[in-house]
Amino acid sequence: MNRTLVKQRVKDLKSFYTNCIWFGFVAVIILGRNFIKWMTTDYIFHGSIILTVWAIILLVKAVKLFILNSEWEQNAIKDEMINLRKQ
Questions:
Q1: How would you write the pLDDT of the chain (87 residues) with one tens digit per residue?
Q2: Which parts of the chain span the membrane according to its record (predicted)?
Q3: How many structural domains is the chain composed of?
């Protein structure tokens, strides 16, 4: 990996971890408030649409960063090039 790719990966990881920390803080506040507000009912997770959307976005970012990283992409391109040469 060259220097610019490494810098971009570190920046992306830092952004991801920062977003995870903020998600945790906001989730604790929202879920804690809802728990106190509706302690006697079954609506503990009422109003957590924002948290659900945010969690989905974080999940997509995690897949992009940790599963579909640039090394995987480069290997897939090399495999396709090899397959094209064989034909």
A1: 567 777 887 888 899 999 999 999 988 888 888 777 777 656 555 667 888 888 999 999 988 888 877 676 677 777 777 877 777
A2: 16-36, 43-63
A3: 1
